[in-house]
Known about the structure:
This protein is of the alpha+beta class.
Amino acid sequence: MRGEEILNLVREFTGNDGVTGYSDINDAYETLCRRAGTWVVRVRDEGSLTFLDDKTEYDLPMELIRRFESVWIKDNADFQEWRKLTEATEDRFEKQVLGNRNEDATDDKDAPRYYRLQGGESNQLQVTPTPDGTYPGRLVYMGNPTPIDRQGVPVLPESYHRTMAKLAASRWLERQPDDGNVAKGQRLHRQVQETYLGLAFDTAPDRTGVSRPRQRIMR
């Protein structure tokens, strides 16, 4: 169910066709995801990073990232395959940089193969060799689900989309000055609360076998 369909359900539950916006829906979405243990999901982000000619440092979208996992680059060859960059220690990264440096202090350029993370005033990604052109990049990280908008689809099973709409409607109703609306909102909220136990147990166990090491703090 898309966001616009969920919003129509909110209008149905409130009895008010003038309900607009997705803030209550997104608040309800976060509440249900946290109850289900799905508020953190693996994201393959191909929109935040593009490697550019002669550019070695890139800002990371830290507002989206809960735990960083890997960096990928898309080769510009015929097969257009994705290749994972190797994370390097400080010592190894510096050796790779020096290995690409010429006697005239210029750097040989190629598709990046190594990266390191840098902290400070901004969190950055640094790569080597220096890119010799433009390459699509991919960041893989654990992050929060994308907020619901008109075309957005929740990560929760569709059987819980009505529950999300009920919770959003209850919050809208409880803000209204009319006592009847408040009582109606409280009834909807109780219906939602009755689903919490089922929601908590209605999640598939993680059988991916993916190792999720702790993310070190960047300073």
